[in-house]
Amino acid sequence: MRETENSVVAKEANRGNAERGGVDKGTVELRPDLLSGVSLPAAVIHEAPLAHNLAWMQRFAEAHGARLAPHGKTTMTPALFRRQLEAGAWGITLATAPQCRAAFAHGARRLLMANQLVGQANMAIVAGLLEAGADFYCVVDGVENVRQLGRFFEERGLRLVVLIELGVPGGRCGCRDQAGVEALAEAIAAEPALVLAGLEGYEGVVHGDDPAAAVSAYAQRLVEAALALESAGHFEVDEPIVTASGSAWYDLIAEAFQDASLQNRFVPVLRPGCYVVHDHGLYREAQRDVLVRRPDLQHGLEPALEVFAQVQSLPEPGLAIIALGKRDIGFDQLPVPLRRYREGGAANATLSVAGWQVTKLMDQHTFVRLPEDADDVAIGDIIAFGASHPCLTFDKWRQLLLVDETLEVRDSLSTCF
Amino acid sequence: MRETENSVVAKEANRGNAERGGVDKGTVELRPDLLSGVSLPAAVIHEAPLAHNLAWMQRFAEAHGARLAPHGKTTMTPALFRRQLEAGAWGITLATAPQCRAAFAHGARRLLMANQLVGQANMAIVAGLLEAGADFYCVVDGVENVRQLGRFFEERGLRLVVLIELGVPGGRCGCRDQAGVEALAEAIAAEPALVLAGLEGYEGVVHGDDPAAAVSAYAQRLVEAALALESAGHFEVDEPIVTASGSAWYDLIAEAFQDASLQNRFVPVLRPGCYVVHDHGLYREAQRDVLVRRPDLQHGLEPALEVFAQVQSLPEPGLAIIALGKRDIGFDQLPVPLRRYREGGAANATLSVAGWQVTKLMDQHTFVRLPEDADDVAIGDIIAFGASHPCLTFDKWRQLLLVDETLEVRDSLSTCF
C-alpha cells in the first residue's frame, strides 16, 4: 500500500468514528513517520510477524492432517478473520453467540462456537444465523441444555448441529466420563431438531503434575470417545468433527489426532487463537515448550502485538510514569518494555530500555523503575510494550494499527467486541 | 418512559450497531420482562441508586463549598456525563486527550484533564478542542513538559491553561516538594502560551501506616502550596482552582479545603468518578470508612452497576460454570453473586445464591462452587454479579442497559472508550 492510499484509509477510519459519535483511543492522522500522527497509547500489530504466524499455523495444521478454525475471540478483528480464512482456515471458532453474529456479519460463514449455547436471546441470535445460511456448530455437555435447545430450534423449524464436549473431573465444562458422553448422545438423538456432528474438548483446563502427559492423556481420551461414538452409530453426519487445542498445547493434540489417523474418518479441527499475534508472556513460554518437544518445527511463532505509549512524567530519580494503563494492555503479567524511540525520530533509531522494570499498573498509568544510568530519558519518549496475553489486550481497543517495519501505519483494524 | 418508547430506543440502538458493522455484546430486543430479550452477559445500571448517587455527591460537594467535576474516565458514558452536569457538576474530569475529545463531542464544555498532556498528537487534539471553544485544563509537573507545551501552543497561537500537580515522594506524578512547585511556576511564567490557573493533586496514591492521617496531611500540603503560590502572585487568574479527590477519601479532601476557607479565594474542585455507580468491592469498603469518619452523612452511596450472566454448565456436583469472563466484568476482586433469577421469570422472584462462591475467572467463564444443598440450579439461570471496581467494568462494554426496579430496560447507554 502506498503512502497516499494509507492516508486515505486512516482518514476514512477516523471519519467513521466521528459519525457514530464515538472516538477511538488511537487515532491515525496523516504523518506516517514513527506513528507521530497517532495519539498514544495505541495498539500496534507488526505485519511481518503477523504474516509469518498466519502461514506458520496453517502449515502446521495441514502437515498434521488437521483443519484450522482459529479462535476468533482472541482478536474479534474481522480483518484478521479474513486473513485467516484466506490463508486456508476451515472456519472461525468463537466463544459466544454475539461473537458468532459479528463474525458472520463480516463474512465468516462456518462458525464453531466452542461453548454451550445458553439463553433464549442467544438462541435467537443463532437461529437468525442459521436462517441467514451460516454453517454453525456449538457444543453441549448436559441433558438439560440439550432439551432446551431441542425445544427452541424445533419451534423455529430449524436444525442445530452440535458437538458433545468432553471435559475432565475438576475441569471446566464438558462431560466427565464416557458414560456421560453416551447418555448425552442418546438425549441428542431424542431431539429431532438436533444433529450430533462430532466431539469437542479443550485441553487448556487440564492440569497435572506432568502437564504435557496430562494433555496427551486427555487427547487420547478424546480420540477414544470419538471412535466409540462412531462405532455406536451416534454421529448423524458422514465426516464427524473432532476438535480441541488452544495456542499452548496444539502440537500434542495434533499428534494424537494424527497418530490415530482420525483424518481418514473424521474432520480433525485445531482451534488456536493467540498464535496469530503470539505474545511476550504466557504464550511465549508455552511456545518454548512446544519447540523443545518438537525441534523439527523451525522458526516458531513470533510476537506481533505491541502497545506504544509515552513517558508522561519523570517525577523523581529512578521513576518514570508512562501514559499506559490497565485499560490499554493485558495484565496477566506486567507489560514488558521492549524498545524506546524519541518522539519525532526515526523507526530505526531505537534507544535503550535495558534495566527498565515495570513495577505497577494502574487504570491509566504504568510505573517503571529506571536503572541508575538512565539519564537520557525524555518526556514524550515512546516505549513499545509487550504483553500477556493477547485476548486481554485486543479487547481494550476499538481499533488497532497495522504497521510495517518502518512503523508506517498500513491499515487501521476495527474490532467488534 | 413507556414500554413502546423503550422498545424504539432499543431497536434504534441495535440498528446503529448493525450500520457500523460492529455488534455489541448485550443486545436489547423487544420483550421487557426480566431482560429476557437481552443477550447475556449484559452490564446493567439500576436507575434508583444511580439517581441517588448523582444527587448525593453533588449535595456533598456543595455542602462543603466545593464544585464537583466527576471523573469521566470511570464511565466514559456521555449519557452519564449529561446527568452529572444536569445535577450541577462544574465540569467533567478526564484522563487523556482522546477522552476529553469524546466528552466535548458529547456536550461537556469544561474539561479538567487530571494528567500531563504528552505527545504531539495529543497536544493537537487539545488544540482542536481549544479552537472549538472548550474550557480546558490540564496538569504539569515538570519543566521539560512545560517547555514542550509552551512551544507547541505558542506555534498554534493558543493559550493553554495548566494546573501544577503536587505529588508525594514515592507516589505517582507530581512535584515532590514546594521548591519544585515554585520552580515550575517560574517555568510556566516564562512561557507566554501557558496560563497557571491552579494546583492539582490526587490523594489515591498517598500511603502510610495510618492512611487517613496521610491523606489529611497531603490535603493540608495542597492547601499550603496553593496559598503560597497565591501569596507569591503566581496565579494568572482571579479565582485559581484547587482540586483533588477520588471516590475513597473525598471527605478528607473536602474538609481540608473547607477548613481553610478556600472557597473564598479559590475554586475548590472534587473529582470522584466511581461514586456514580459505586461498587461491591474496593469502594464499598472505602465508603464504610467514610461513614465511620462522617456519621452525619446519612444514607451513603449505593451500588448501581451489576453484570447479569447465565449458568452455562453444571458439569459435576458442586460446580457451576457461568457464561461471564474477564472480558465482561472488572476483576480487581472476584465478582460477587448477588441474586439469581429463573430465565423467563419475574424480576421479583429471586432465587438464592447463599453460599455461592466464585473461585476463578477466565476470559469467558466464571467458576462457582455451589453449596451442598444447591439442588435447584438450572442451566440458563440468571445471576446478577457485583464487581470491583467500576472503571474496569465499564470499559468492557460498548453499551450498558439502564433498568428500573422491575428490570425493564429504560435506555441503552453507549460508552466512548
TrEMBL record, chains A, B:
<protein>
    <submittedName>
        <fullName>Amino acid deaminase</fullName>
    </submittedName>
</protein>
<dbReference type="InterPro" id="IPR026956">
    <property type="entry name" value="D-ser_dehydrat-like_dom"/>
</dbReference>
<dbReference type="InterPro" id="IPR029066">
    <property type="entry name" value="PLP-binding_barrel"/>
</dbReference>
<dbReference type="Pfam" id="PF01168">
    <property type="entry name" value="Ala_racemase_N"/>
</dbReference>
<comment type="similarity">
    <text>Belongs to the DSD1 family.</text>
</comment>
<feature type="domain" description="D-serine dehydratase-like">
    <location>
        <begin position="304"/>
        <end position="404"/>
    </location>
</feature>
<dbReference type="InterPro" id="IPR051466">
    <property type="entry name" value="D-amino_acid_metab_enzyme"/>
</dbReference>
<keyword id="KW-0456">Lyase</keyword>
<dbReference type="InterPro" id="IPR042208">
    <property type="entry name" value="D-ser_dehydrat-like_sf"/>
</dbReference>
<feature type="compositionally biased region" description="Basic and acidic residues">
    <location>
        <begin position="12"/>
        <end position="25"/>
    </location>
</feature>
<dbReference type="InterPro" id="IPR001608">
    <property type="entry name" value="Ala_racemase_N"/>
</dbReference>
<dbReference type="Pfam" id="PF14031">
    <property type="entry name" value="D-ser_dehydrat"/>
</dbReference>
<feature type="region of interest" description="Disordered">
    <location>
        <begin position="1"/>
        <end position="25"/>
    </location>
</feature>
